[in-house]
Amino acid sequence: MGTHTRRRFVRGTAAVAATGALAGCNGNGNGNENGNGDDAAPEDPAEAAENFLNEHDANQYDGLVDRTGEDEITIDNGAGPNGFAFDPAGVRIDAGTTVTWEWTGEGGAHNVVSEPDSDFDLETELVDEEGFTYEVTFDEPGAALYVCTAHRAQNQYGAVVVE
Questions:
Q1: Is the per-residue pLDDT at 49 higher than 90?
Q2: Phi first, then psi: what are they for 17, rounded to 5°?
Q3: If you count Cβ atoms within 10 Å of the first and of the last residue's Cβ in the chain, which end, N or C, has fewer?
Q4: Are 134 and 101 in contact (CB under 8 A)?
Q5: Where would one find coiled-coil regions in this protein (predicted)?
Q6: Which strand ranges, in their side-by-side order, compose the sheet holding 65-66?
Q7: Is the pLDDT of residue 29 over 70?
Q8: What pLDDT, in 10s, does the model give residues 93-112?
Q9: What are 73-85's pLDDT values in tens digits?
Q10: What is the pTM of this model?
């Protein structure tokens, strides 16, 4: 390809890229694709939890564990080979179920803190004490999306789906 042809190709490619970028800015700004101004339907709590855990490549996550029908469940905080996981990472429960996070003592100090898209507010201090517990009774349907802030970079994320 000659110099002029190469320059023309580069200019043409840049023009096409710029046109495509500007086309994306020409929407009506309502945040949905149908342009009618309605908000999109809210995400199903199970779908929200699965997407959240998959997007963050959560340690120990291999699908939502069904714990419906139980009054109380325990989630280990500091699970996995390096202590940087919740076990189970994703769980499905009934409304009215009490969830207890129990610190394993592995992986250093941990906490449980809800993420912005969570339907529930969760927050503990960083604790490195084996046997420490944090208990929440979930009375309403929704998705609790949470992280250990000390191990966000190590993918220590979890979710509770309340039906």
A1: yes
A2: -65, -45
A3: N
A4: yes
A5: none
A6: 65-66, 90-93, 157-162, 142-147, 113-114
A7: no
A8: 999 999 999 999 999 999 99
A9: 999 999 999 999 9
A10: 0.75
- What sign has the CA pseudo-torsion 79, 156, 102, 65? negative
How far apart are the C-alpha atoms of 6 and 120, rounded to whole Å? 56
Contacts of 137 (CB under 8 A, 6+ apart): 96, 97, 98, 99
**β-bridge pairing 133-138 and 97-103:** antiparallel
From the annotation, which residues make up the binding site? 110, 148, 151
| pLDDT single digits (tens) 109-130 | 999 999 999 999 999 999 999 9
Binding residues for Cu cation: 110, 148, 151
Tokens of 97: 């179920």
